[in-house]
Structures are given as C-alpha cells and as structure tokens.
Specification:
Chain A is mainly alpha-helical. Chain A contains 14 helices and two strands. In chain B, 74% of the residues lie in helices and 0% in strands. Classes of the chains: A mainly alpha (306), B mainly alpha (157).
C-alpha cells in the first residue's frame, strides 16, 4: 500500500497526536506588533525612563517639574494668561483674534510689537477713536481695562500677549512696566502742585490719572456705550452720586468695583465694560479727594424733594 | 494597573484645572461676596407686602413701587432688606432712579420713597426703633420728623 493511499484511510480512533506545521494567523502577528508598539509608546510616555525622582502618578521628570513652584518666564506666562482671560479675553478673544466691529485682533497686530510704553498706554489709558490694525480701520472705544492692575499683572499680561498666537515680541519686565507707567503719567501734576490744590481739584486730577473719564466721560456725565448693559447700554453718569451714596458707601464701591454688570437681555453677551476694583491701586488720600470731586459734580439747584 | 495610572494622571489634570478655575472664579466673586450674600438672604423672603390695611394713598404708591422696582430686581430684595430709616431710603431710591434707563422720574421716586418710609414704620417697626435709638439726637429728631410728615400726609385721608 502506497503512502498516499494509507493517509486517505480513516485513522484508528486510538491514534496519537501527530506533529505538523501550520502557519501563524496574520492577525496574531499584527496584534502582537501593535501591542509591542503601544507598549513602547506607553513606556516612552509613562516610564519616566527610570528616573529615580519619578513615582506614580507622575509619568516623567518634566511632568514632575511642572508641579514645582514656578519662577521667571513660565510663571509670567501662566499669570499673564489668567489676567488676560479676566480683563481682555471677553473682547479680544481667548484666541487673540478679537471681535468684528468691537475689538481688533492682537495676533499679529503691529501695535503689540511696538515699544513697551506705546503698548502699555492702551490698557492704562484706554483707546478711543480711529485706529488702523493690520491695514483695517477701526473706531474704538476701549476702556482703560488695565489701569487698576499692578505693574506685575500688566507686565505678565503684556508678556503673554507678546508671546502668544504667533506674536514673537519680547517679554515685558516689571521694571520696564513701571517705567512705562511713569512715562505715561508724566503729565500728572507734581506733588508740590498737588499740595496747593483744593481737595476737589486734587480729586479731578485723580479722576484724570486713573482714566475714569475714559468710561464715565470727561465731565463724568457718562455715555460710553456698554452693549447689553441694563443701564440703558451705557456706562452710568457720576454727577448724581452725592444723592445716592454716603461718602463711605461710594469709597467702598470704588474700592470693590462691580464685576458683574446686570444685562439688558439675559440671553445676550455680557457687557464688555465693568467697574474694576481700584482698592489695590488708589491710595486712601486719592480716594478721599476723588470722592470730594465726585460729590461736587451735582448740578446746583437740581434738588429732589425727598 | 497601567490603566489606573493613566486614569490617575487624567484625573489629576482635571482636578488641577478645576481647582485653578475655581480659584479664578473665587477671586472675582470675592470682590463683593458680602453684599451678594446679603442680597441673597433678602431675596429668599416674601416678595409681596400685604398693604390692605394701609391708607389708599400708600396702597397706590405700593403699586408704583412694585411696578418700577421689579424692572431691575426682585421685589423681595427691598421688601426684606434692613433699610428702614428715611435717610437710607432717600439715598437708595435716588441711587436706583439715577441709573440710566430706570424710568423713574422724581415724582415717582418721591412716591416710592414715601411708601418705603411708611411701610418701614409699620412692618419693620422693631428694626426701625432699634436703628433710631443708635442715631445722634439730631439725626433721630430729623428722622422722626420725616416719618411723621409721611404719616400725616397719608393717614386718615
């Protein structure tokens, strides 16, 4: 009987296992390679490369470093971003692209790349009127959003703006910011001038110094548009504060500010302008003078009979 | 085990973000947390006043009060707040009516003021007496004169 014939016959039931070769299915190879690759990737991401400082749940020395107290440039950027989101992001956008018809983009803006004093002037004193940004014309009414911020906050936020969204202008040091603020307020009266002035005159200088007029108007009669603000979509006049506040109440309000401006249409966007808290910026003497000035604004003869 | 680690990192990240967010939000709220807490407390109280026993003129003023003031805030805020003195009401009514777009003219403002002074002297009598007792003698005399003036204007008419 030939071999071929033999193998075609039914095998006896008690036949033992026979050795044979069969190909490994292709999916097992693929799966194995995939698992090896994923394992390698995981190892790369999570082993910490056996660095003796890295323990779970941290996955690398870099990650660990990111939880350490920060200093220098990195903390400036983190802090600057937080300040930006609070004071600038509503109009200029988290992406720095601005809002059509309201706020120009900061990404790639030639104004961001200017010298520090020119740039710092914008948050410190606001910006009103026509301006060109990247070849487009704008007519702005920006409040001095940064006037109530410290030099450290302003330096951080300008550093963030100058180093984000493709902007590559250098960081702003706190000392540079301090110098810029001093240069911008250079026109302010000297201390010997101030000593000769009445409290109301000094208060008027304070009103100018902190840029209150940018929102409340040169004569404090209000008028800067504040879309969707319950107060007739404008920043309120200040000439009647003597009616509605005690001096202490007014000082407290100026110190604390009002972050949440009630909205005309609750479903609409939040109004862009709000009252900053000035408590950390304004001195108590300045605040006394400012209050005297504001109380002096009440029109003579305009008296309510209650 | 490895999944736990990954999950751990993820959760840690989420927690850090949440904490950061909460910190920023809290910094904003802190500006006037005290006032906000007071307003919340006031607004939890009843939103109407039973004026059926008040003189007709005061009832009419209550209508103006409830109509004008609810343009911007809940009526329960002034109804339950701790202002009772004529001086306090004068200041707050003027502060509100001077807001752009309040739609409260000086005649309405005066009616609202008179309603609030009258109502405070009846419904919040205990609080009023307490505050009057803490005033200087001159201020106390002036406040009492103002309250009497309002009562004389509306009572028994």
């Amino acid at each position: 009987m030939s071999d071929e014939l033999k193998s075609n016959l039914p095998q006896p039931p008690d036949a033992g296992p026979t050795a044979s070769r069969s190909t490994v299915p292709i999916w097992i190879i693929v799966l194995t390679l995939l698992l090896l690759f994923l394992g390698a990737v995981y190892f790369d991401h999570h082993s910490g490369w056996f660095d003796k400082q890295v323990y779970a749940p941290y996955t690398s020395a870099d990650e660990l470093a990111s939880y350490q107290p920060k200093s220098g440039a990195a903390s400036m950027l983190t802090h600057g971003k937080a300040v930006y989101e609070t004071y600038c992001g509503l109009c200029h956008g988290s992406d720095g692209l601005g809002k059509p018809g309201q706020a120009p983009e900061l990404a790639g803006s030639e104004w961001v790349a200017k010298d520090i004093t020119s740039l710092a002037r914008i948050p410190l004193t606001g910006l009103n009127g026509p301006i060109q940004v990247k070849g487009r014309d704008w007519n702005l009414s920006m409040a001095p959003m940064g006037a109530s911020l410290s030099d450290a906050d302003l330096a951080a936020v300008l550093t963030y703006v100058r180093g984000s969204w493709g902007n590559k202008s250098g960081a702003v040091a706190i000392d540079e910011m301090k110098a810029a603020r001093a240069a911008i307020s250079g026109q302010a009266p000297s201390s010997s001038d101030l000593a000769k002035m009445t409290p109301v005159e000094r208060g008027h200088a304070v009103f100018q110094k902190y840029g209150c007029f940018q929102c409340h108007g040169q004569e404090a009669k209000g008028g800067v548009a504040n879309p969707n603000a319950k107060t007739a979509e404008q920043v309120p006049s200040l000439i009647y504060v003597a009616d509605g506040y005690t001096k202490d109440e007014l000082k407290t309000f100026i110190r604390k500010g009002e972050r949440d401006i009630p909205m005309l249409h609750p479903a609409g966007p939040p109004p862009p302008h709000f009252m900053p808290s000035w408590g950390n910026v304004i001195s108590s003497n300045e605040l006394d003078d400012l209050t005297d000035f504001l109380f002096s604004l009440k029109p003579k003869g305009d008296k309510l009979d209650f | 085990m490895q999944m736990n680690k990954q999950l751990g990192v993820l959760l840690l990240g989420v927690a850090a973000l949440a904490l950061f967010g909460a910190g920023v939000a809290r910094a904003d709220d802190q500006l006037d947390a005290e006032t906000k807490a007071r307003i919340d407390r006031f607004e939890k109280g009843p939103a109407t006043i039973d004026v059926s026993k008040y003189p007709q003129g005061v009832q009419d003023n209550y209508e103006i009060f409830s109509q004008k003031c609810t343009q911007c805030h809940k009526l329960s805020r002034p109804v339950n707040c701790d202002y009772v003195l004529p001086d306090e009401w004068s200041r707050y009514v003027k502060r509100m009516m001077r807001k752009p777009g309040s739609g409260i003219d000086s005649a309405d403002g005066k009616k609202i003021f008179e309603f609030l002074v009258y109502d405070s002297s009846v419904r919040k009598k205990a609080m009023l007496d307490d505050k009057l007792a803490k005033l200087t003698p001159d201020d106390k005399t002036a406040a009492e004169a103002k309250i009497k003036e309002v009562h004389d204007k509306y009572d028994n008419k």
